[in-house]
Amino acid sequence: MTIRALHVASELYPLLKTGGLADVAGALPPALIERGADVRVLLPGFPAVAAGLTDVRPVAQLGRRFDAPGVTLEQGTLPSNGLIVYMIRAGTLYDRPGNPYLNEEHVPYGDNAQRFALLGWVAAQLAQHLDPAWAPQIIHAHDWHAGLAPAYLKAAERQHGRPLARSVFTVHNLAYQGVFPAHQFGQLALPDDFFSMRGIEFYGQLSFLKAGLYYSDRITTVSPTYAREIQTLAQGGGLDGLLRHRSHDLSGILNGVDYTVWNPASDALIANHYSAAKLGGKSACKEALQKRFGLAQKSDALLFGVVSRLTEQKGLDLLLEMVPEIVKRGGQLIVFGTGDPALENGLTRVAQAHPDSVAVELGFDETLAHMIVAGSDVIAVPSRFEPCGLTQLYALAYGSLPLVHCVGGLADTVVDASLENLADDLATGFVFDRFEPQGLGAAIRRAFALYGRHTEWKAAQRRAMQQDFGWGASAERYLALYRELA
Ligand code: ADP
Ligand code: GLC
Asked: For the chain, which domains are there?
């Protein structure tokens, strides 16, 4: 039996991306389709989404919803792979330039509750045959933006007196909870009793994330370690009680890599192609990278790269403290990303102090991201917490040994170059336990030490590149979950 599943998300690569969620939303549906499922995606009609779809046609007129007049549901096709995407058009609710969540001052839009309630509401309408030609059996909602989808579905089922579809809610990041003032509950058109501790109420406010966790039939998150971490008081973001209560419905399924996008043997965005068998070409990527960022052209300087959102989560303040250590040992560092102004300034100042060894550029650019992943010797991901992390997986594929904090998906995917792991041919990177300068410093020293041992470094690179973090196994696990539910 073919299972029909609707993925509900706020971003999707290559249409619109601010982080790893877009990579997952872009790669998981095709991986499920490849394995026989009938999968479609629902997105808000942000300008980049509307501009990137082809064969767009109307599916349904929805009138005035959540204060937006003339809401329509349209259907289009993603040109790169034929994926069918439903898109909600709701005038200025979505049709705004720039970041999908924040205004020009980097402040969340005042009407985000309505904007993302509409997304969840339309998902539940699709389960009620809003599109006469296709209705999902599974609604798979991602992160708080889609958190109300399971709630609207439960409300509709109560009204119809029968089940309409089953739901899966995937937590990509528990730190973003979609919390709004309680007085906005009235705008959501949910049954009154949903505003309750057993519902979407969260310490006197509304939480879209909690709605997803509470009303979905199954919860997944993006790595096994993170699935355990979020059930603890320390890392549960106030939701650990609910998560422990639902622990039988909660599982961790690791994200995968789309190797059609991230493969050094075919990547059109990098200076030179290379592979585990032919590693030689990587040095041209390093050379091009040093040149692009104005660093000293030294082939033997250990080059650390960072491609990241610049937020508290990513732990780059700790890396900043270690810059003198890297420079003192003759290493180099490139940081590329955007985010917190304080972190942006701190990084920029360090780069000014070490122009030959440290370069910092603020921005978001797919080509530069690929160039850095390919040209660096080490990709640093010292995150305080990391639900899965994709950058370290891309780094492995490119033989750029990841240096990571032992948390979440980082702990599940990188094996430290300890003596015993080297001896057993297991090492693929550098892992530190405690989030403090000594821990990170020791991992940095391990990287320098291994870099000094040419043969062992090459062996670790090959091993990293041979790891299979493709979507195959994870897509099978999601499919098994769908089958169980349907
Ligand atoms: P998160 O989703 O928390 O940001 P992930 O590691 O899961 O972390 O995914 C980050 C994704 O965003 C990767 O695809 C990475 O290449 C990309 N990315 C992060 N910062 C930038 C940037 N400044 N420019 C381009 N891509 C970026
Ligand atoms: C979130 C997490 C990241 C994860 C990504 C995709 O943004 O921060 O760890 O890889 O979602 O699941």
From this structure: 4-256+471-485 (3.40.50.2000), 281-466 (3.40.50.2000)
